[in-house]
Design brief:
There is one protein chain. By secondary structure, the protein is α/β, with parallel strands linked by helices. It contains 17 helices and 12 strands. It folds into 2 domains: 185 residues, Glycogen Phosphorylase B (Rossmann fold, 3-Layer(aba) Sandwich), CATH 3.40.50.2000; 182 residues, Rossmann fold. The strands form 2 sheets. It has a 6-stranded parallel sheet with strand order 3-2-1-4-5-6, sandwiched between helices. The protein has a 6-stranded parallel sheet with strand order 9-8-7-10-11-12, sandwiched between helices. Strand 1, helix 1 and strand 2 form a beta-alpha-beta unit. Helix 1 crosses helix 17, helix 3 crosses helix 4 and helix 9 crosses helix 15. The longest helix has 18 residues.
């Protein structure tokens, strides 16, 4: 079987990481398959690209320029015509450039994972293009959770299968000493550490997290680690830096804007609570990773997050935009070791039951086979 996964770029993001790890796991489970990873943009140094290089997948890049680049359609067409894939699986903006190029592929399975709530994945003309592809050109949208499935039904009027996101965590790292990891990464071992991981953008709403941290700090001295980069020109990152600079010095010196990192697992294991302050989400891989490592989680109750985290069982959920609720939930975790441990254990158990990359690859592989048989 020939499988092509299409991503926009090698920038660090959940959709890109899932695609690369899915390629890796499909090759591990089915070593005789030919698996290709097609990126619209040429490679940039990142964790995503490093993982792709190590995976053994065949990498093709299309040299897309910024903005609308009509030559990319032709390059996509030539690439797919040369490969003659059995399955084309797109992620994020990869779909819009694949739709015209696949018109000639009559017996190819065409799958698109909706990584976010459907209303937030695209808009305007692109939304109508997606709808046309799903309804008339044989493309099958796939949801990550029940809430994402509902959003696909609401936006496109279609039912979609669910294949849950999954990752693999380093079991050896779980045995490392948290205190030693803190020292290794220059994190104070004397006060709790809060970590948030994700692109610096309005969706993730790190400004809300800073507001909550300022409230929390009045009750408990702690450190805030913000991991991620602004891949959209840096405006949000600049605003975030300005906000940090406006904080009182005693709070400001405990906020660390770390940028993109390759040691995310180690930073997670060195932290005491994982926080997502997003305004909307699909199913974040960073949340699954925190659960897999047994780190207590506090998240806004948006998108597919409540499908993953049952409030009070595997973590704490708060309304989006509520800085006070977010601060109090984090404080609840940090001041109650027994509750934090209980939440973390239940989260890790749920992760092991439902969110492995092996299960994700198996789910997609079975879907590919089913649609190929039907075709």
């Amino acid at each position: 079987m020939k499988i092509v996964q299409i991503i926009p770029s090698f920038n660090v993001g959940g959709g890109e990481l899932l695609a690369v790890r899915l390629c890796t796991e499909i090759l591990r489970q089915q070593p005789t398959f030919e698996v290709y990873l097609v990126s619209l943009y040429d490679p940039t140094p990142s964790v995503v690209y490093d993982e792709a290089l190590a995976s053994g997948v065949k990498i093709v890049t299309l040299g897309k320029k910024k903005g609308f680049d009509p030559k990319t359609f032709l390059r996509m067409y030539k690439t797919l015509r040369s490969i003659k894939p059995d399955v084309i699986h797109t992620h994020l903006a990869g779909l819009r450039y694949a739709i015209p190029a696949t018109a000639f592929l009559k017996r190819t399975v065409k799958v698109h994972t909706v990584h976010n709530m459907a209303a937030h994945e695209t808009s305007g003309l692109m939304l109508h293009l997606h709808k046309f592809a799903f309804r008339h050109l044989g493309w099958q949208p796939v949801a990550l959770s029940n809430e994402v499935k509902k959003s696909i039904r609401n936006v496109y009027g279609l039912d979609s299968p669910i294949v849950m996101n999954g990752i693999r965590v380093n079991d050896m790292l779980k045995k490392e000493s948290k205190i030693q990891l803190k020292r290794t990464h220059n994190i104070s071992a004397d006060i709790p550490a809060i970590i948030s991981i994700g692109r610096l953008c309005e969706q993730k709403n790190q400004t809300l997290l800073l507001d909550a941290f300022s409230i929390l700090f009045l009750e408990l001295e702690c450190t805030l680690l913000i991991v991620g980069e602004d891949a959209m020109g840096g405006k949000y990152q600049i605003a975030l830096q300005n906000k940090i600079q406006s904080l009182p010095e005693v709070i400001r010196k405990n906020v660390c804007l770390l940028g993109p990192r390759k040691d995310v697992p180690e930073l997670l294991m060195a932290s005491d609570v994982f926080v997502l302050s997003s305004d909307w989400e699909g199913v974040p891989l960073t949340l699954l990773e925190a659960m897999g490592f047994g780190i207590p989680v506090v998240c806004t109750s948006v998108g597919g997050i409540p499908d993953v985290v049952d409030h009070g069982n595997e973590g704490l959920l708060v309304p989006k935009g509520d800085k006070n609720a977010l601060a109090h939930a984090i404080l609840d975790i940090l001041q109650n070791d027994e509750r934090a441990s209980c939440l973390a254990k239940k989260a890790r158990y749920k992760f092991e039951q439902f969110y492995s990359i092996e299960g994700t690859a198996k789910g997609y592989f079975e879907m590919y086979q089913e649609y190929l048989t039907e075709g």
